[in-house]
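Collaboration report, partner site 2.

Our partner group contributed sequences for two proteins of shared interest, and the home lab folded both. The records are reproduced in the order in which they were received, starting with the first partner submission.
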Amino acid sequence: MPEVTFYVLESSSQQERFLFACRLIEKAYRTGQFGYVLTDSDVQSQAIDDLLWTFRAGSFIPHQRHNGDPPALQNMFLVGSKPAPDPWHKLVINLSAQYPENYHQAERIFEILDNSEATKEPGRLRYRQYQQNGCVIATHKIS
């Protein structure tokens, strides 16, 4: 079962949520990890893709949008709304409102919620699902 970490931001800004995701992705990349950023839509995937290029001057995180085809390189983050392909499902950063498909194959899942009901309510449902499935869950409030 994966370790699931919920990050709950005080802000209700989607932009702040996405920026936090970029910082978390950068931290994972610096420790040699790669994974999948699960989004709700192509529009959200494009927003994360754009932000990964610009969120911090001097930062470089190899990534690409996932359209269903296998990526050319292994050592990068994928961003998309489709289920994570092998081996990117080991680390999943969930920005979607959905419970990750094949969650049981993940080693780590990061759930990032802002303080809006639009993200908190689906987040509560996912929390219960993880709990019912026996996942180890941690929650961090971010100010």
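Second partner submission, folded after the first:
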Amino acid sequence: MERSGAALAERIAERRSGGGDPRALVGEMRRAVLLVPMAGGRLWSARMGGVRWIHGFTDEVALARFVRHHVPGDQPLEYATLLGARIVDEIVPALGEPAGLAVDVATEDGAMFFPPVTGIVPESAAVDAGEAREARA
């Protein structure tokens, strides 16, 4: 069942306050419809710490905050609406490099990062896939 980003924003707030279940947060991210800005026909991303982070936003207010800080002038910005699961299951592996999802980058508390690890992205795209296989053996 697809859900708006509001439920994800609530789960993120729970985690930041020291509560909530990390697995429930990942599940909510997978069900959430996120707004992903486009630049040059591609999803907006940035490299940090050796990882390409796709930027997703839980609502138009969070996206507008990002646009004010990263897009010059009053230029319109296209964005795609994508299910979190599609981003981490399809788009991340297709990039061919370590990649994850950064949600609500321009908030006061900073982004919530969903890194390229087992349990968030497919094993084929997880940077810890070898460790996860060894742990199961």
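Feedback sent to the partner group on the second submission included the following. The CA atoms of residues 33 and 83 lie 4 Å apart. Strands lie at 33-39, 42-43, 45-48, 51-56, 79-83, 99-103, 112-114.
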